[in-house]
Specification:
The complex is a heterodimer of chains A (about 120) and B (about 110). By secondary structure, chain A is mostly beta strands. Helices cover about 0% and strands about 55% of the residues of chain A. Chain A contains no helices and 11 strands. In chain A, the strands form 2 sheets. In chain A, strands 2, 4, 5, 6, 9, 10 and 11 form a 7-stranded mixed sheet that branches. In chain A, strands 1-3-8-7 form a 4-stranded antiparallel sheet, with no helix packed on it. In chain A, a hairpin with a 4-residue loop joins strand 7 and strand 8. Helices cover about 0% and strands about 50% of the residues of chain B. The termini of chain B are far apart. Chain B is globular. Chain B has about 110 residues and is mainly β. The relative contact order of chain B is 0.34. Classes of the chains: A mainly beta (about 120), B mainly beta (about 110).
Chain lengths: ~120, ~110
């Protein structure tokens, strides 16, 4: 079964650091990019950035660049999302998703496999 | 960034109803448009990609249409498991952007 398994819920204080993880299984982890998506409480979905696990090339939404770091360890089929200094506004559910592709006359990209999400709560 | 605007933000419908959700992009995105369904407490699920291609395993009552800037998701006959929030997302350029969501509720 193709799946992405995310790490468990976290409760942190402002200023603390955090790394959450997303482990892929059931497919070739290095063949698909991994994307991270934020969902703040009661709000919609926001694309944060993505990484190619084969070479760890990443790109970010400018809204998140500089505040988070996306990385990957292909030897253990795991992608990471990391903060050096959390803020209360980082309280959200964070999803990782696999970037699939398809199409007949062009290549279309979409997020076809999703993790269950990691809830991050930042509060003093 | 490309802005995605969905309408309506919410709708009430009865079982068996035909439901239509609209998504508009701030610039042409060809057919680089995906639709997702999200139920409370769950991760999003891919329904439609490339504006009109049905993802494997998704019931045929779901369909998508459109190209350029205007897109539509249609549920031909609403079923109990279809209640939830629907999001469009463009895959034309980065950063990828989502619509604000359309919540489908029971009338």
């Amino acid at each position: 079964e193709v799946q992405l398994v995310q790490s468990g819920a976290e409760v942190k204080k402002p200023g603390e650091s955090l790394r959450i993880s997303c482990q892929g299984s059931g497919y070739s982890f290095t063949s698909y990019w991994i994307t991270w998506v934020r969902q703040m409480p009661g709000k919609g979905l926001e694309w944060m950035g993505r990484i190619d696990p084969s070479d760890s090339y990443s790109n970010y939404n400018p809204s998140f660049q500089g505040h988070v770091t996306i990385s990957a360890d292909k030897s253990i089929s795991t992608a990471y999302l990391e903060w050096r200094s959390l803020k209360a506004s980082d309280t959200a559910i964070y999803y990782c998703a696999r970037r699939g592709s398809g199409g007949t006359y062009a290549t279309y990209y979409y997020m076809d496999v999703w993790g269950k999400g990691t809830t991050v709560t930042v509060s003093s | 960034d490309i802005q995605m605007t969905q309408s309506p933000s919410s709708l009430s419908a009865s079982l068996g109803d035909r439901v239509t959700v609209t998504c508009r992009a701030s610039q042409s995105i060809s057919s680089y448009l995906n639709w997702y369904q999200q139920k409370p407490g769950k991760a999003p699920k891919l329904l439609i990609y490339a504006a009109s291609s049905l993802q494997s395993g998704v019931p045929s009552r779901f369909s998508g249409s459109g190209s350029g800037t205007d897109f539509t998701l249609t549920i031909s006959s609403l079923q109990p498991e279809d209640f939830g929030t629907y999001y469009c997302q463009q895959s034309y350029s980065t950063p990828r952007t989502f619509g604000q969501g359309t919540k489908v509720e029971s009338k």
